[in-house]
Amino acid sequence: MPDFHRSIPEGDDKERLVCRDCGFIAYENPKLIVGSVVSEGERVLLCRRAINPRRGFWTLPAGFLEMAETAEEGARREAWEEAQARIAIEGLLAVFSIARIGQVQLIFRAGFAAPGFAAGPESEEVALFDWAEIPWAEIAFPSVHWALRAWRAAAGRPLGAPASNPPEDARGTVPLPQGSGL
Amino acid sequence: MPDFHRSIPEGDDKERLVCRDCGFIAYENPKLIVGSVVSEGERVLLCRRAINPRRGFWTLPAGFLEMAETAEEGARREAWEEAQARIAIEGLLAVFSIARIGQVQLIFRAGFAAPGFAAGPESEEVALFDWAEIPWAEIAFPSVHWALRAWRAAAGRPLGAPASNPPEDARGTVPLPQGSGL
Ligand SMILES: [Zn+2]
Ligand SMILES: [Zn+2]
């Protein structure tokens, strides 16, 4: 395997991961997460994670955008992979920056394009929850809270400007609470 | 340098770039571009590119998001680097997917936070243009057209849902015209 160390390549102005053996530069770029709040009537779709981080906690169907996908295509693929759901995207609900881990999340608002859902390989369980039944103490990530609140705030209304980070974590730098299962 | 070939790593379901010598997997992830339409009154700020691709053509201040930045921080940094402008971001104007090259672009609407602008190292020239004076034939990328049209359509109004790709290039797969300087 390559033996990476941090140094500033010639002509650059930032530290990168450079291989000591062959000089290969592994640029670390922020990753793009695409996902959706999928609802039916008053209920929203959540997936209980079968994988780490945060195995056993509930999340939205979301994951890394792949090459050659549009953001919407990626969100539809993730809903299929994680929740075996065919979704119809309405529009962009929220954009969150999680600077601590170099992520930007694009969260869409969606409904079902076809009936049915089931746990995909990365989910232990998939279910629709009424707002009052959402297992808030068992939500996987802060941004899932944020997205659900944004969904609730816009419920029954046309989508406007997307939500962004809440003021208490404007840069997405607050780590998960200790003992949160990570 | 590593000797990459395309193959499907164990446990994966897509072709990746894998080094023949050491097995290192160079995941290709979509890149996130952050930029802004910066305006003063009726005029918008454009930069004439001093670097390839599309050297000599006009573009918005925009570039790759870096690790540990929020999307807004990245857009402010790019406005400073390329146009020596301190900008105040109002909100998200557009989200474009350029699937052909694995890019998602987040384009903000912004004004000047402080007076003044000048060409940074990657720009030959920076200028404010009235709508009627925009050098349409010398615009660097289709998405710059799209962003300027979205800006014009929303001018004088609060930002609503962000614009996305136009129907004629819904996935961002139409290549640049031949002889366009690439
Ligand atoms: Zn190496
Ligand atoms: Zn190697």
UniProtKB/TrEMBL annotation, chains A, B:
InterPro entries reported in the protein's UniProt record:
NUDIX_hydrolase-like_dom_sf, NUDIX_hydrolase_dom, Nudix_N
User: Gene3D superfamilies annotated for this entry?
Assistant: 2.20.70.10, Nucleoside Triphosphate Pyrophosphohydrolase
Q: Does the keyword Hydrolase apply?
A: yes
Question: GO molecular-function annotation terms?
Answer: hydrolase activity
Residues of the region (Disordered) are: 160-182
The protein's UniProt keywords, in alphabetical order, are: Hydrolase
Q: Which residues form the Nudix hydrolase domain?
A: 29-154
Q: Answer yes or no on keyword Manganese.
A: no
> What name does UniProt use for this protein?
NUDIX hydrolase
- Name the species this protein comes from: Siccirubricoccus soli
